[in-house]
């Protein structure tokens, strides 16, 4: 017995020094697949009702959690109704309740025939100190180690002695995190001390992970909302641009129809005469159309682009201006050059080259 007490203290000390989960345990497939509705008790305000009182009630449906009732019946028959609140439902259901309450699960495997079980149940598990501490800080689940889910959990944990207790936390996938386990006899004060240390150390780690997960969910939600708002704003701007473009095209067509052939001939006749500071630019379009326009020699190449854009001609998208011979590109790098410095004064011929 002294060796078992030292083992419990040693395990608790290692958990205290490491401050991490002791190990991960994969759950049996039938336990994972057995997740169904909660049966029987389900709430803490029925905590001290003896098991026999439930047997007097005829359930409307068959009790699926018969193994859990078997544990409660066996336990209360020998040790009375004052004990930690054990949820009378399946393991996965109780684990989900613990996760929803942001608490760890206290698991107890009951083996009545083992020599240390009676003293542990009577003096430790049913003591007022342990009952109040477990009910306040844990979601408890118990089962007979010789049948049902209790037998499966015993095969999973493989305890070397009884009584056996463990502190469990949900983990991703088909596994659980074993934060602490205790085997053999242990006093109420020692049990509470180990559980308290586990809650303080592991609670920070799991609480921090849960907080990070919740913060990530909130951040993802905020990002989606910002992206949706940006998309709607962009959509509105695009619609306004399209509307302005349509209006601009309509205006350009009206203006173009108002230009008479006489005016066009007059522009050709006046090409490159009189004003020595004037620069005449002939612009050829991919469809064969030509336009001539007069600029000041101090105007910049960008002025030619603005003039072309103001025409609102259909089918003109991204483009650049190129002189045919010798070939020279008047693109983004030349936008700020004057027509005189760029070699287009007093007259120049440019071809609109689509990109």
Automatic annotation (TrEMBL):
Q: Which PANTHER family match?
A: FAS-ASSOCIATED PROTEIN, UBIQUITIN-ASSOCIATED (UBA) PROTEIN-RELATED
SMART domains given in the database record: UAS (SM00594), UBX (SM00166)
* Full protein name: UBX domain-containing protein
Which InterPro entries does the record match to this protein? FAF1_2-like_UAS, Thioredoxin-like_sf, UAS, Ubiquitin-like_domsf, UBX_dom, UBX_domain-protein
Listed A to Z, the keywords are: Ubl conjugation pathway
Taxonomic source organism? Carpinus fangiana
The source's domain of life comes to Eukaryota
- Record GO biological process: ERAD pathway
Report the GO molecular function annotations: ubiquitin binding
